[in-house]
Amino acid sequence: MSRIVRAAAIQITPVFGDDGLGTARKVCQAIRDAAEKGVKLAVFPETFVPYYPYFSFIQPAFRFGGEHLELYERAVVIPGPVTDMVAEAARDTGMVVVLGVNERDFGTLYNTQIIFDATGQILLKRRKITPTYHERMVWGQGDGSGLKVVESAVGRIGALACWEHYNPLARYALMTQHEEIHCAQFPGSLVGQVFADQMEVTIRHHALEAGCFVVNATGWLTDEQIAEIAGNPALEGPLRGGCFTAIVSPEGKLLGTPLTQGEGMVIADLDFALITKRKRMMDCVGHYARPELLSLLQDRRPAQTVHYTGEGAQDPTLADAAEVAP
């Protein structure tokens, strides 16, 4: 029997210069606005709370120490006030929410994706496995423990951030877990039109290859915000364009009109019968796979800086060791 889920890819602007909670409040209001339209799944942009570190793209590392420290002060601790706010909004509306945040774990920041179930429970907290280019000066690296698909109120959900979609083995790890909805997040307002063009190709290809829906959200900066971040008209160009908020079917078709400018939502009804229709033709982790020729080894053990031995000690990595044993 067919199952239909209404999803929203949300493109809005962050809030700068406050205590770090302003953007989270906008997220919660957007969740409630989407609920009024019957939405059951909402996806927000990459590291949207408190904001994506745009400064690191246009400034050399030795100059952005101050902005980096400010991001530390406003970053999200999990669990904490931001996750409590979003969990409450998800629970009140009965909505599954996928949110990108700058996570602070003591002395390191991470590009983190959080999946909240319709009950408000955090189903998954995963960290971008390899920050891209300028981002490596801002965030630490994630590990394989987050490359998971989770069962949610709207179906099996997987998530990747930005150029993780150019790591085919990371995408395949999620495909093997039979994701039904893939939640993609990009920063938006970056690089220019070529970034949006590449993004469209990327998410449509993943939908076709995985045989799943893709809900992709990008952020948006106003002219005033661009001027504030750049501090120099000559640096404003790299902070324009690059927005492509969209929803794609398992057949690679755009559902609705993508959003490339301004704030708003792309809303579509996801008919799960299309997943079976696509996979009947090509299931790359089933009848179209050749595991005797090609296979993937995934290490799901969380990265640890210390391993405990001795009487009364427990190594937290041992519980997952069986998952990666040859």
TrEMBL record:
What's this protein's family per the entry? Belongs to the carbon-nitrogen hydrolase superfamily. Nitrilase family.
Q: Which GO terms describe its molecular function?
A: nitrilase activity
What name has this protein been given in UniProt?
A: Aliphatic nitrilase
PROSITE patterns, from UniProt? CN_HYDROLASE, NITRIL_CHT_2, PIPLC_X_DOMAIN
InterPro entries (UniProt xref)? C-N_Hydrolase, C-N_Hydrolase_sf, Nitrilase, Nitrilase/CN_hydratase_CS, Nitrilases_CHs
Provenance organism? Acetobacter okinawensis
Species lineage? Bacteria, Pseudomonadati, Pseudomonadota, Alphaproteobacteria, Acetobacterales
Occurrences of domain CN hydrolase (ranges): 5-272
* PANTHER family noted in UniProt: CN HYDROLASE DOMAIN-CONTAINING PROTEIN, NITRILASE
